[in-house]
Amino acid sequence: MSALRWHFDNSYARLPEALFSRQRPTPVRAPRLVIFNHALADTLGLEAGTAADGLAPLFAGNMVPDGAMPIAQAYAGHQFGHFTVLGDGRAIALGEHIAPDGRRFDIQLKGSGPTPYSRRGDGRAALGPMLREYVISEAMHALGIATTRSLAVVATGEPVYREETQPGAVLTRVAASHLRVGTFQFAAAHRDIESLRALVTHAIDRHYPACRDTDAPALALLRAVVDRQASLVVDWMRVGFVHGVMNTDNMTISGETIDYGPCAFIDAYDPTTVFSSIDQGGRYAFGRQPRIAQWNLARFAETLLPLIHEDPDKAVERAEPALRAFQDLYEARWLAMMRRKLGLLGEDAGDAALAADLLAGMQAQGADYTNTFRALSRGDLPVEGLRPWHDRWQARRAQGAGAIEASRDLMRQANPVYIPRNHQVEAALDAAVAGGDLQPLHRLLDVLALPYVERAGLAAYTEPNPAEPGAYQTFCGT
Ligand code: AMP
Ligand code: MG
Could you tell me the distance, in angstroms and rounded to a whole number, from the CA of residue 84 to the centre of ligand 1? Predict the structure, then answer.
């Protein structure tokens, strides 16, 4: 039926049966395509010349394409530090699409009806939060940050009941895979060594083929994931992204950002920033993200111990340095990232202090994170209170011939002009959901598609949220 050029394989569904349940999406009443990502469809080689009314039933889950084998994945996870057995309660993977270039992508419908893991949930999603995931994930991609992507959002024509009644929707999520730390925790919790072994092989085949030929693949996998996650969190810190719900089930093995629930970008620089209404203790605050990532990786390491060595003490002995490496990797890459943000060529012993002093100054001044770095990229003084720091910075930067131009180029590539500002995102979602007007959303997506290129007439998209700092709250959208 569909003219899309799907090439499905279902390697996850060939893993041990405990790891998933076969589950078809539950058809919806009146599917209507709200937004479709043509650029991503091109990347996937789908050639979506199909009319919108042809795509809607497909991306609503009303029909399952040839070759797909719909499943819900089992997983567990630490949610705010507490271990729970979970699973895809409202998401169904159609399978893995092989793009023309050979890359393999999970195609998952989120909000596609109940599964054996739904517990008391309805298996559905609301239009606002699904469009929000679409906007933020695509913004992250344009910022050059590893992330799941969004291919389509379809309105279901059915209501979902949350605090208030909202229009239902299904998001098509595209991911390198949906393997999570929690996937391994699920198998480990059941002492299911066969599944663990299969997951390690599967993860290595899909994401880290270089680990295949080592004498300790599970340990090599741990090292690889630690490495990838360290880079990911540095990228989050670079652009002021607060994930908001870094539970172990929301941390991928691939190193992609996943699960855009209560995430948001900071305006004023403050490491204690929390947006999520349910994160009362600030566990997932902006500045805590590296520590939490390492904590999650420790949970990952625990699941791998029996595969690292049959002697538990020896296994711990080997896993510990692999895990501890996170700190050094993170710090070295954070400093390298800050050097790019500050346009510092070469390395100087004072660079870490220079960066730390700027951050402290920004925090004291309540300065906007994105706009401060962008002002510096232009050579401007962002706020008067930073003048002494600015003089120091200029002196450090001026070293060497032609240094200023090279420095500026470096900064323009590291410091976005446009991020998804919370008030802009809310306004665009309101217009789309309450008013049925998609124009503000498309305009916002156009702005965010080129985040490093300053353009005339877009100053409104660089304004910090006019609301009280700390007033903006996000919800999980469940
Ligand atoms: P999240 O906070 O989105 O990572 O979700 C945590 C867990 O709750 C996952 O296992 C989800 O599949 C599940 N879940 C969230 N919303 C729903 C829903 N409406 N129906 C069923 N399960 C849900
Ligand atoms: Mg999740």
Answer: 12
